[in-house]
Design a protein that fits this description.
Blueprint lengths: L4 H4 L3 H15 L6 H10 L3 E2 L19 E13 L2 E15 L2 E15 L2 E5 L3 E10 L7 E10 L15 E11 L2 E13 L6 E3 L2 E8 L5 E2 L1
Length: 218
Protein backbone atom coordinates (compact mmCIF):
# COMPACT_ATOMS: atom_id res chain seq x y z
CA UNK A 1 0.00 0.00 0.00
CA UNK A 2 1.36 3.44 -0.92
CA UNK A 3 1.71 5.96 1.86
CA UNK A 4 0.67 9.62 1.46
CA UNK A 5 3.29 11.91 0.00
CA UNK A 6 3.61 13.84 3.23
CA UNK A 7 4.82 10.64 4.91
CA UNK A 8 6.97 9.21 2.15
CA UNK A 9 8.85 12.41 1.37
CA UNK A 10 11.14 13.99 3.92
CA UNK A 11 13.03 17.26 3.48
CA UNK A 12 16.74 16.60 2.92
CA UNK A 13 17.57 18.92 5.84
CA UNK A 14 16.09 16.46 8.32
CA UNK A 15 18.19 13.67 6.83
CA UNK A 16 21.27 15.83 7.22
CA UNK A 17 20.39 16.53 10.85
CA UNK A 18 19.82 12.84 11.53
CA UNK A 19 23.14 11.89 9.92
CA UNK A 20 24.94 14.53 11.98
CA UNK A 21 23.48 13.22 15.24
CA UNK A 22 24.39 9.64 14.33
CA UNK A 23 27.91 10.75 13.45
CA UNK A 24 28.35 12.36 16.86
CA UNK A 25 27.42 9.18 18.69
CA UNK A 26 29.47 6.99 16.37
CA UNK A 27 32.57 9.09 17.15
CA UNK A 28 32.07 8.91 20.92
CA UNK A 29 35.11 10.20 22.77
CA UNK A 30 37.49 8.07 24.76
CA UNK A 31 36.65 7.84 28.49
CA UNK A 32 40.03 9.42 29.29
CA UNK A 33 38.69 12.69 27.83
CA UNK A 34 36.67 13.19 31.01
CA UNK A 35 39.86 14.09 32.88
CA UNK A 36 40.74 16.61 30.18
CA UNK A 37 37.30 18.18 30.44
CA UNK A 38 37.52 18.54 34.22
CA UNK A 39 41.02 20.01 34.04
CA UNK A 40 39.92 22.51 31.39
CA UNK A 41 36.98 23.75 33.47
CA UNK A 42 39.07 24.14 36.65
CA UNK A 43 42.22 25.54 35.04
CA UNK A 44 43.35 29.04 36.06
CA UNK A 45 45.19 29.45 32.76
CA UNK A 46 42.85 31.12 30.25
CA UNK A 47 43.54 30.67 26.55
CA UNK A 48 41.71 32.79 23.97
CA UNK A 49 40.36 31.19 20.79
CA UNK A 50 40.17 34.01 18.21
CA UNK A 51 37.71 33.39 15.40
CA UNK A 52 37.73 36.74 13.57
CA UNK A 53 38.37 38.16 11.07
CA UNK A 54 37.24 35.17 9.01
CA UNK A 55 34.17 34.10 7.06
CA UNK A 56 34.26 30.50 8.28
CA UNK A 57 34.01 28.80 11.67
CA UNK A 58 36.77 26.61 13.09
CA UNK A 59 36.19 23.49 15.17
CA UNK A 60 38.03 25.00 18.16
CA UNK A 61 35.62 25.88 20.97
CA UNK A 62 35.86 28.48 23.71
CA UNK A 63 37.58 27.16 26.83
CA UNK A 64 35.23 25.74 29.43
CA UNK A 65 34.06 28.41 31.89
CA UNK A 66 35.40 31.28 29.75
CA UNK A 67 33.34 34.01 28.05
CA UNK A 68 34.69 35.63 24.88
CA UNK A 69 33.35 38.72 23.14
CA UNK A 70 33.74 39.31 19.42
CA UNK A 71 32.45 42.03 17.10
CA UNK A 72 33.14 43.05 13.54
CA UNK A 73 31.91 45.45 10.89
CA UNK A 74 30.62 44.04 7.60
CA UNK A 75 29.65 45.89 4.41
CA UNK A 76 27.76 44.48 1.42
CA UNK A 77 27.18 46.01 -2.01
CA UNK A 78 24.15 44.24 -3.58
CA UNK A 79 24.41 46.39 -6.67
CA UNK A 80 23.85 49.90 -7.94
CA UNK A 81 23.99 52.45 -5.16
CA UNK A 82 22.67 50.03 -2.54
CA UNK A 83 24.75 48.98 0.45
CA UNK A 84 24.28 47.34 3.84
CA UNK A 85 26.42 47.80 6.96
CA UNK A 86 26.32 45.44 9.94
CA UNK A 87 28.05 45.78 13.29
CA UNK A 88 27.72 42.09 14.07
CA UNK A 89 29.00 40.15 17.08
CA UNK A 90 28.17 38.64 20.43
CA UNK A 91 29.31 36.28 23.16
CA UNK A 92 30.71 32.75 23.31
CA UNK A 93 30.56 30.70 26.51
CA UNK A 94 32.54 27.50 26.99
CA UNK A 95 30.25 24.82 28.44
CA UNK A 96 32.63 21.84 28.14
CA UNK A 97 36.12 21.33 26.74
CA UNK A 98 34.55 20.58 23.33
CA UNK A 99 31.19 22.42 23.50
CA UNK A 100 30.36 26.13 23.57
CA UNK A 101 27.28 28.34 23.42
CA UNK A 102 26.96 31.25 20.97
CA UNK A 103 24.83 34.39 21.07
CA UNK A 104 25.21 36.82 18.21
CA UNK A 105 23.24 39.81 16.97
CA UNK A 106 23.30 42.68 14.53
CA UNK A 107 23.82 45.44 17.09
CA UNK A 108 23.72 48.08 14.38
CA UNK A 109 22.27 47.68 10.88
CA UNK A 110 22.29 50.34 8.18
CA UNK A 111 20.59 49.78 4.81
CA UNK A 112 20.64 52.18 1.87
CA UNK A 113 18.65 51.27 -1.25
CA UNK A 114 15.83 52.45 -3.48
CA UNK A 115 13.47 52.51 -0.46
CA UNK A 116 15.60 54.98 1.45
CA UNK A 117 18.14 55.13 4.25
CA UNK A 118 17.30 53.07 7.38
CA UNK A 119 18.98 52.30 10.70
CA UNK A 120 18.05 49.75 13.34
CA UNK A 121 18.78 46.63 15.37
CA UNK A 122 19.31 43.31 13.60
CA UNK A 123 18.35 39.71 14.29
CA UNK A 124 19.62 37.52 17.15
CA UNK A 125 21.19 34.09 16.66
CA UNK A 126 21.55 31.37 19.31
CA UNK A 127 23.65 28.27 18.74
CA UNK A 128 25.86 25.43 19.96
CA UNK A 129 29.19 24.29 18.49
CA UNK A 130 30.53 20.81 19.26
CA UNK A 131 33.90 19.34 18.29
CA UNK A 132 33.57 15.57 18.21
CA UNK A 133 36.93 14.59 16.69
CA UNK A 134 40.37 16.04 17.42
CA UNK A 135 42.94 16.50 14.70
CA UNK A 136 45.98 14.27 14.38
CA UNK A 137 49.01 14.37 12.09
CA UNK A 138 47.02 12.76 9.28
CA UNK A 139 43.43 13.88 9.82
CA UNK A 140 41.57 17.12 10.47
CA UNK A 141 39.39 17.91 13.47
CA UNK A 142 35.63 17.69 12.89
CA UNK A 143 32.64 19.39 14.46
CA UNK A 144 29.09 20.62 13.96
CA UNK A 145 27.53 24.02 14.60
CA UNK A 146 23.77 24.59 14.94
CA UNK A 147 22.19 28.05 15.06
CA UNK A 148 18.62 29.35 15.18
CA UNK A 149 17.64 32.89 14.30
CA UNK A 150 15.38 34.80 16.69
CA UNK A 151 13.76 37.46 14.47
CA UNK A 152 14.20 40.87 16.06
CA UNK A 153 15.03 43.11 13.09
CA UNK A 154 12.32 45.42 11.76
CA UNK A 155 10.33 43.93 8.89
CA UNK A 156 8.71 47.29 8.14
CA UNK A 157 12.10 48.93 7.60
CA UNK A 158 13.35 45.99 5.54
CA UNK A 159 16.06 45.04 8.05
CA UNK A 160 14.84 41.46 8.50
CA UNK A 161 12.31 38.88 7.35
CA UNK A 162 10.54 38.38 10.68
CA UNK A 163 10.90 34.61 10.25
CA UNK A 164 12.84 31.97 12.19
CA UNK A 165 15.79 30.46 10.29
CA UNK A 166 17.86 27.36 11.08
CA UNK A 167 21.49 26.77 10.18
CA UNK A 168 23.42 23.50 10.50
CA UNK A 169 27.13 23.52 9.64
CA UNK A 170 29.66 20.73 9.27
CA UNK A 171 33.12 21.96 10.31
CA UNK A 172 36.61 20.69 9.50
CA UNK A 173 39.90 22.29 10.58
CA UNK A 174 43.57 21.41 10.06
CA UNK A 175 46.89 22.99 10.99
CA UNK A 176 49.78 22.77 8.54
CA UNK A 177 52.80 24.43 10.07
CA UNK A 178 51.96 28.11 10.55
CA UNK A 179 48.90 27.91 8.30
CA UNK A 180 45.39 27.02 9.48
CA UNK A 181 42.67 25.63 7.19
CA UNK A 182 38.91 25.77 7.84
CA UNK A 183 36.26 24.14 5.68
CA UNK A 184 32.52 24.56 6.27
CA UNK A 185 29.50 22.97 4.63
CA UNK A 186 26.36 24.86 5.64
CA UNK A 187 22.72 23.84 5.34
CA UNK A 188 20.44 26.87 5.79
CA UNK A 189 16.68 26.60 6.23
CA UNK A 190 15.28 30.10 5.66
CA UNK A 191 11.76 30.77 6.87
CA UNK A 192 9.40 31.70 4.04
CA UNK A 193 7.87 35.16 4.22
CA UNK A 194 4.72 34.47 2.19
CA UNK A 195 3.83 30.91 3.23
CA UNK A 196 4.55 28.37 5.98
CA UNK A 197 7.70 26.28 5.78
CA UNK A 198 11.34 26.77 4.90
CA UNK A 199 13.45 27.25 1.79
CA UNK A 200 16.72 25.32 1.66
CA UNK A 201 19.74 27.33 0.55
CA UNK A 202 22.85 25.12 0.87
CA UNK A 203 26.31 26.61 0.52
CA UNK A 204 29.92 25.66 1.15
CA UNK A 205 33.03 27.76 1.66
CA UNK A 206 36.69 27.35 2.51
CA UNK A 207 39.28 29.72 3.95
CA UNK A 208 43.01 29.54 4.63
CA UNK A 209 44.62 31.96 7.04
CA UNK A 210 47.87 32.35 8.99
CA UNK A 211 47.75 31.32 12.62
CA UNK A 212 48.12 34.00 15.29
CA UNK A 213 49.75 33.23 18.66
CA UNK A 214 47.08 32.26 21.19
CA UNK A 215 46.56 34.85 23.92
CA UNK A 216 46.57 33.54 27.48
CA UNK A 217 46.25 34.88 31.00
CA UNK A 218 46.82 33.54 34.48
Amino acid sequence: MLLPNRIRRRPPAFLLLLCSVLTIFSWAEDPSAAGTSEASCLSSNIVSVPSRPTVTNATDTTQCGVVEVQYGLERQWPGGRSNRDDLFGGLRLGLMHNLDFHWASGAFVHVLDANGDRLGYGDNWLGLRYKFLKQTKLRSSLGIFYEAKVPSASVVDGLGTGRVDHSLSFLASKDRGEVHFDFNVIELLAGRTNSPGFDKTPASRCLRRGLLPAASAE
